[in-house]
Amino acid sequence: MEVKVAKTAGFCMGVKRAIESVIQASDELDYANIYTWGPLIHNPQTIELLKEKNIHPTLDLDQITDKDLVIIRSHGVSAGIRRQLQESKALLRDATCPKVARVQALAKKFNYEGYTIVLIGDAGHAEVEAIMGGIESGYILNSETEVAGLPELEKICVLGQTTLNRSDFEHLTEYIKKKFPYALVLDTLCDSTSSRQEEVKKLAPEVDMLIIVGGKNSANTKRLFEIAKGTGKPSYWVETAEELKNIDFANYRSVGVTAGASTPNWIMSKVVEKLEIINEPHLSFFKIPVVKFLGYFMLQSNLFKAGGVACLTFLSLVMINQRINASIVALSFFYALEMFILYNTYDWQGNALGDPHRLHFFKEFKVPLLITMVVSAILTILLASLNGLLILILVILAILGGIVLSSPRLTQRIFQLLAILPSEKITTSKDITTAVGYAYISVFIPIVWSRPRLEYWIIPLVFLGSISLIRAILFSFKDFDSDMILKRKSIPIIIGYFKTNIILGILFVLSILTIVLGVAFRFLEWSYLLLILLPVYYLLYAIYYNVIRITKTTYAELAIDSGLYLAAILGGVILLIK
After folding, report:
1. DSSP 3-state assignment of 4?
2. Which residue(s) pair with 71 in the sheet?
3. 480, 493 Cβ separation under 8 angstroms
4. Of the candidates 49, 40, 48, which has an alpha carbon nearest to the alpha carbon of residue 19?
5. What SS3 state is found at 255?
6. What is the mean pLDDT of residues 411-416?
7. Beta bridge partners of 92
8. 359-382 pLDDT, tens per residue?
9. In a 10 Å sphere around its CB, with 0-12 CB exposed, 13-18 middle and 19+ buried, how is residue 106 labelled?
10. Which of 134, 333, 355, 431 is most buried (most C-beta within 10 Å)?
11. How many CA atoms lie within 13 A of 253 on its CB side?
12. pLDDT band at residue 5, thresholds of 50, 70 and 90?
């Protein structure tokens, strides 16, 4: 089935800010307990993931002590609740969405100036209760009947719940103006919400049906669903991919998908992935259950990624001296495998936000994975010792460096203590550290082992270093949302998508020129021109990603690291030609 995904689907700014606040608090480890006042966001799956880190929603003041941290959720709280929380002496952190806070401030301001506040919204909704809980008098309404029932009012200020359907808000405000021509109407709707709603309307004519993904307790997701139904296209509201089994897709060829502002990307990705295999006449090779499980295991266990590092090392040896040292290739594989497993033990937040299936996989196979990590570390050191004392020292330094870099907070503190460079600088971003790690184990160590003349190691260092950085940046595009929430510094976050694409363009040109000039000056034989296919592969991926977007994180990871396997294939062909 053809699936079209709305560009604006997924977490909005307010939700990202709220989750960021919780994640940051959980890393501080200075609190007896961490609570959110009510569900942090209206998405049950995200709330369950937070509970795994002992972050629980509560509405019970008696449960809170002065050693606990209470985070005010994105919908905000009323002035009375805030006062009670302050009196409880618990530590407070405010994660109220700035756009919701603005409505609260406007309501308080105009009510103080003598206006009666009329809030168009859903009575009982957390945001509405927080807004009205900060003023002395006002009315909540969402229908013409309720407008007609308003008493005569001298001064009236009309506001709207941020997640309202814009057309409904405008219709009711016009009706209010007929009864109260002097009414002050303020547009307090969230632009992000409005753009999502407009996109549903634009998407509807292009597809046979619409799927809205999000929590059943989410007001903005409810609005999206109502708008979808209003287009006349068959529309369904699901929380997870599992609910798709209740829908009959027999007569549909295309489907449009969007998600509420509190819906994580991983839930959306699973929905899209399942939709794409519906109504297929046959299973492709990669969707045969056994093949699919093996592929899933290779990715989740990091065996595929570690194999990619080994492939890069193989090509490095081909480019340096055309001699293959199996122990150096194996060394890079086991080193990468132990580091990836180690990183997953620290990065529970990234896995939870980007791909919780990896988090669950790690929990299920934690013991064998940790054993694999220890065995891999031992094998790495043994293989290094076979290649001399210098290689052994360099590998031990790489292991120590990998342990440090596996903890983002520890890395940041070390950079700050040493005053090397501010942590905000691009030079300490995770893209650079990842690329340096790849180049160190896959290029620098083979160079030290081979000890070639200068002109024979400059070319592989520049070419494969560029490829390593290209790969790291493409992964940062894939992980952009979780990196932003977790405050990880990556090049796309620091300088933005546009400038990062310029950097990618420079790297593509540099890698191709390196090979062309190497052949032109006879440092490389003509067969090495085949290596141009490697940056071309990544260039095509980057174009595809920017134009179409790969919504499934697993497929993106597979596509990016498959480039490293292409590197080994090209290296093997070059050896055969020679």
Report:
1. strand
2. 36, 93
3. yes
4. 40
5. strand
6. 55
7. 70
8. 667 777 888 888 999 999 999 999
9. middle
10. 431
11. 1
12. confident
Q: How far apart, in whole angstroms, are the C-alpha atoms of residue 60 and residue 364? A: 34
Structure tokens given for 32: 């007896």
Q: How confident is the model at residue 38 (pLDDT cuts 50, 70, 90)?
A: confident
With contact defined as beta carbons under 8 Å apart, do 559 and 475 qualify? no
Catalytic residue among 127, 199, 338, 557: 127
Number of other residues whose CB lies within 10 A of the CB of residue 520:
10
| Residue 127 known to be catalytic | yes
Neighbour tally for 381: CB within 10 Å:
16
Residue type, 5: V
From CA 43, how far away is CA 384, in angstroms rounded?
49
CA distances to 51, 88, 164, 175, 176 from 145, rounded to whole Å, are 42, 41, 18, 10, 11
What confidence tens digit (pLDDT) does each residue in 252-302 have? 888 999 888 778 777 787 788 788 777 665 545 555 556 566 767 787 788
SS (H, E, C) 488-552: CCCHHHHHCHHHHHHHHHHHHHHHHHHHHHHHHCCCCCHHHHHHHHHHHHHHHHHHHHHHCCCCC
Q: In whole angstroms, give the CA distance from residue 569 to residue 233.
A: 48
The pLDDT tens digits for 147-185 are: 888 888 889 999 999 888 888 899 899 999 999 999 999
352 φ/ψ angles, rounded to the nearest 5 degrees: -65, -40
Q: How far is Cα 244 from Cα 235, in angstroms, rounded to an integer?
A: 12
The answer for residues whose C-beta is within 8 angstroms of residue 18's C-beta and 6 or more apart is 40, 41, 71, 73, 74, 95, 97
Cα–Cα distance for residue pair 78/125, rounded to 1 Å: 12
User: pLDDT digits over 94-131, tens only?
Assistant: 888 888 999 999 999 999 999 999 999 988 888 899 99
Q: Residue 62 has what DSSP assignment? A: G
Residue type, 314: F
